[in-house]
Write a structure and sequence with these properties.
- The chain has a seven-stranded parallel sheet with strand order 1-4-5-6-7-8-9.
- Helix 9 (146-155) packs across helix 11, helix 10 packs across helix 11 and helix 15 (293-306) crosses helix 16 (326-338).
- It is an alpha/beta fold.
- The chain has a single domain (6-281), classed as TIM Barrel.
- It contains 16 helices and nine strands.
Amino acid sequence: MLKNDILLRAAKGETTERTPVWLMRQAGRILPQYRELRGRLSGFKELVETPALAAEVTIQPVDALDVDAAIIFSDILVVPEAMGLTYEMVEARGPLFPEVVKSAADVEKLRVANPEEHLGYVLEALRITKRELNGRVPLIGFAGAPWTILAYMVEGHGSKTFSKARRMLYQEPALAHQLLEKITVTTIAYLQAQVAAGADIVQIFDSWAGILPPAHYAEFSTAYINRISAALAPLVPVTVFAKGAWWAVEDFAKSPARTIGLDWNQSPAQARQQAPGKTLQGNLDPCALYGTPDQVRAATQAMLAEFAGGPHIANLGHGVYPDTNPDNVKVFVETVKAWQG
């Protein structure tokens, strides 16, 4: 039994005594204890792939920030690696794929990953975290949306435009669908295994949603996200976060996903109209946490007021930035917990 289940109740659409709160990327570089641990290792991937250490980092913000959930420390790019496309994490540059998907032969070589065999280190980290949390808060599992995973697999690295990946959608749509199908099947099995390993709720991150036009987003992203949501929704609540894709809220309103995450440029009031009955999550501008404590408090209260009228999980509109003062994050969390609006 969970001692604090307020986030799960909000995710299910129930009325709660206060607004639950957590932060995307809360387990990471804002915390000195994370930086100390990371400094002893060869790099990011060693931390992700060492279950006991990933569990330790997952729990750190629960202790330090008093958030209402833990999110497993991992990366969305473990999925393409499990499928046979290895990535490197280059300091100050980000992910890099030495090989990319260019052809039908490349897609054919990729496997549909077996979660226990190819992603067992994530599942073991979940099991350790679940045991060590001992019911304090729920544990969030996650995966990248198929479109965002395809974007990295085709482009090979981060990009402002992802023009190579987007070109595939125009020039070789059938090939894109073949790749998206393999990613989707892998992701469903992976998230189901995360639930079996202890995840109480799962989130699908579509980090590069906003670079697609709406028609392409519906065809190459929403359809696959909805398949994943439908497969997971009977097990746990599902959250979808499609950064920049404000037009997709109406489509997600009809999906099995229970919670819709909003970025800081989206209107909570408009989203309430587009998705009545859904739980909304978000959406403080991460840069608001650079202000003074009083400014952080005021910005948080203004954000909370915008979400009035329905279930809400407080969060940022994207991940917390690594140079954010942890004391300001605590102000954000405390302000949410004290809110009586």
